[in-house]
Amino acid sequence: MDHDAVLALFDRQMRCEARPDEAGARVERVGDVVCHVGPAAGWNGVLWSGLHERSAGAAIAEQVRFFGGLGRTFEWKTYAHDAPADLADRLKAAGFVPEDPETLLVAETAALPLDTAPPEGIRLLPVTDEAQVGLVERVHELAFDSGRSAIGHQLRAQLAQDPATVPAVVALHGDEPVSAARMELHPGTAFASLWGGGTVPEWRGRGIYRSLVAFRVRIAAEHGFAYVQVDASSYSRPILERLGFVALGTTTPYVWEPQVTR
């Protein structure tokens, strides 16, 4: 895989030319900034910026004014190759708070193992309706102690936009959900994205995560997507690299929250 060429393709298709991820959302380009404007419960933030030292300050201030005027928390999703070199410092000076950095991993779907079975006693269930969304929410409560409303909103929005889609898969032990992970297929691009993998503590380290990856990659391959992309935590990165994913850089979210007037 030509790393530079794939990174350039990712920047163009997934950032510069991104599409709204749910009904009622929109993508806007203001100067050298592309932002996603969703509902209050959805994702709001900056997807791409082509800034330089002279333009960065005004561009950051404009986004703060815009989302602040909506009363929205929003995220500026930065990548290590974004300019200017001091973008992170400028965001922090404007009141943004960095979250944990992640690694941008990409793999060719044709090069990944697709037949990884779940461990004995575990069955995988594609999420296609409201009741199954509840199973994913339950996993997130147990795995992360948070995120119920966020993951539920994302999955319901995906199902509402395309009822035939499979936005997630959940692993069951009997009738008890023990792991789950989300995915997005991005029409008009070469990329599918894997998101939100989580396993309840007592079931970690047994190979469930690998089977969830294979399940979702099979779906991406069946729909003709050439690449699968993950923003990987330090926990999932070594697992994914062993499967064949390669690192193209790092990404760090910077989050801005409106001031609460008491």
Automatic annotation (TrEMBL):
Gene3D superfamilies in the record: 3.40.630.30
CDD domains, sorted: NAT_SF
Residue span, N-acetyltransferase domain: 122-262
Pfam family, one: Acetyltransf_1
Database matches in PROSITE patterns: GNAT
Name of the protein: GNAT family N-acetyltransferase
Source organism of this protein record: Streptomyces endophyticus
